Amino acid sequence: MGTALGLFMAARLLGAAAVALAAWAVGEHPVLLLGRSWDSIWYLRIAGDGYGRSLRFHPDVVHSDLAFFPLYPGLLRAVTELTPLSGPAAGLLVSWTAAGVAACGIYAIGARLHDRAVATALVLLWALLPHSVVLSMAYTEPVLTAFAAWSLYAVLTGRWVWAGVLAAGAGLARPNGFAVAAAVLAAAAYELYRRRGKVTHRLWTGAALAPLGWLGYVLWVGRRQGDPLGGYFEVQRLWGSRFDFGLDALRFVRHLLLEGDLLVFPMSMVIVAAALLLYGLLLADRAPVPLLVYAGVLLFVAAGGAGFFECKPRFLLPAFPLLLPLACALVRTARARPWHATLVVGALAGLSFAYGAYLVVLAHKPL
């Protein structure tokens, strides 16, 4: 695991260095860009002042901080209370730490399903995704991935109570964190079927715990909004986020193909298309049920959701199981033709560092 974690840290430090160089070149401060931009600003305000802020742009466009789940701002508040760090620095500390914990969990899953070489390749590929710069920012994806990876590992190793507890934590991290609970519940149902109902109480406990984090926050927001079942989803609708089975995304893809747009948008289209292809390969490889369900739910939500098309690659960043087929292929290539694998990794690194710097410093679009 040490080699994988070292490669991960090196990749992310080089990515952060690329952002810093680009920021200094245009007169910006890299720490502020990484620690206080877009969603990070909302999380910092929640951490400092609690919930209750809304920005009204139109009767049907109201941005409320209730759209943001509470785990990350809670961690920020704890760090700023216990250390002398500022809000942005605390956000970066939480995110970088969570990214390292996630990398360890991803390695553990890869090693259990294949071997240490595939596990290392899986971690390295995750570190070099085009949007992996988000792992170096004060965003929630590293926290979600950390909880998700270790929850899925707990399922694969039969630690059902831990799986449920960690899934509940994932559900408090992000709206799409319910994908972890869905994976735990699907795995539990499969185990019940396979063992014809003869399972331990730990499985029932884990399955009961898994959705509590996500459900608890959604119901709390609903109660606060006066509509326990629909209040949270109304908050999301007023942000412009809703689920329409991909109709809005297809219309935007048509716009891109006919008229073009900024680099962020066609790149997002390519990444989502690649994710769909990789999920097909994951199915063909007969990956374990919890990994298929987890990655499938994340992909379904990202591809089928309306609004914020440029954010879809970020929503897919926690879907690391999609990289398993690529990790296996990279290891086979490295064993047969080491220089070919080196060139592939070098090209991925160049794309990741350059595109990450572009996204943070130059694109001026929500991540």
Automatic annotation (TrEMBL):
Topology in the membrane?
Multi-pass membrane protein
Protein name (database record): Glycosyltransferase RgtA/B/C/D-like domain-containing protein
One molecular function GO term is: alpha-1,6-mannosyltransferase activity
Task: Note whether Mitochondrion occurs among the keywords.
Answer: no
In which domain of life is the source organism classified? Bacteria
InterPro entries linked: PIG-V/Gpi18
Which ranges does the record mark as transmembrane? 89-110, 117-140, 160-190, 202-220, 262-284, 291-309, 315-334, 341-361
- Record organism: Streptomyces liliiviolaceus
Q: Where in the cell is it found?
A: Endoplasmic reticulum membrane
The UniProt keyword set, sorted, is: Endoplasmic reticulum, Glycosyltransferase, GPI-anchor biosynthesis, Membrane, Signal, Transferase, Transmembrane, Transmembrane helix
Q: Which GO terms describe its biological process?
A: GPI anchor biosynthetic process
Q: Which PANTHER family match?
A: GPI MANNOSYLTRANSFERASE 2 (PTHR12468)
Leader sequence range is 1-22
Major location category of this protein: endoplasmic reticulum
Pathways per UniProt:
Glycolipid biosynthesis; glycosylphosphatidylinositol-anchor biosynthesis
